[in-house]
Design brief:
The chain has 211 residues and is of the alpha+beta class. The chain has two domains: 39 residues; 151 residues, Distorted Sandwich (Glucose Permease (Domain IIA)), CATH 2.70.70. It has three helices and 14 strands.
């Protein structure tokens, strides 16, 4: 059973609550109020609601919660091909669990160290620390690449899959702490279903359809 709070946050939540309770006991509510606000923020940041992804064939789901900041043609730097690129920016109030956009086999993983510029900027795709996963869709046979990109505040990318693993559509595969983005590189034949400024929900929102 999936916990409501992401396991990545259990220690952070425990420490923030312990600090708030301790200051409340020793100094009172007035002094402890800022710590309770911090604890509330930490709890909301690490929330991880259960998702039931749509299973219709040909759908490509959003790998992240957030705002769509790029939709358009681009060169896939991992498979060296023309592609449709879709980017979703997560702010500090987004759910930060990452989910697989399709079902299939993980063919390769690339980790690239880098900078920590604002993840809402397009240059973050090429300059920031990032972790890319190439998956071959088990139904359509298309090659999909999705990339976890660290941001200005995010300094910790977590990925829980290895090459050769199978991912189900909408399956949780990673987490990024404190604001970041996820880039999708899709075959040119895919049709985008979102535009810049749209809100996306990981494992639920359809961002593209495969031909």
């Amino acid at each position: 059973m999936q916990p409501i709070i992401a396991r990545e946050g259990w220690l952070h939540i425990a420490l923030s609550l312990l600090a708030a309770v301790a200051v409340t006991i020793w100094a009172g509510w007035l002094w402890a109020m800022p710590l309770w606000l911090i604890a509330f923020f930490v709890v909301q940041f690490f929330r991880d609601p259960k998702r039931e992804p749509p299973q219709e064939s040909g759908l490509i789901l959003s790998p992240a919660d957030g705002r769509v900041v790029f939709v358009g043609p681009a060169t896939d730097p991992y498979l060296d091909r023309p592609s449709l690129k879709i980017s979703v920016f997560m702010n500090v109030f987004s759910v930060h669990s990452n989910r697989s956009p399709v079902a299939g086999e993980v063919k390769k993983i690339w980790y690239t160290p880098g900078l920590f510029v604002n993840a809402a900027l397009d240059k973050a795709s090429h300059q920031n620390e990032r972790n890319a996963i190439w998956i071959r869709d088990g139904n359509a046979g298309n090659d999909i690449v999705f990339v976890q990109v660290a941001g200005l505040i995010a300094r910790r990318i977590l990925c829980y899959v290895n090459e050769g693993d199978h991912l189900d559509k909408g399956q949780r595969y990673g987490f990024i702490r404190f604001g970041s983005r996820v880039d999708l590189y899709l075959p040119e034949t895919c049709a985008a279903q979102v535009g810049i400024g749209d809100r996306a929900t990981a494992g639920l929102s359809v961002v593209a359809r495969q031909a």
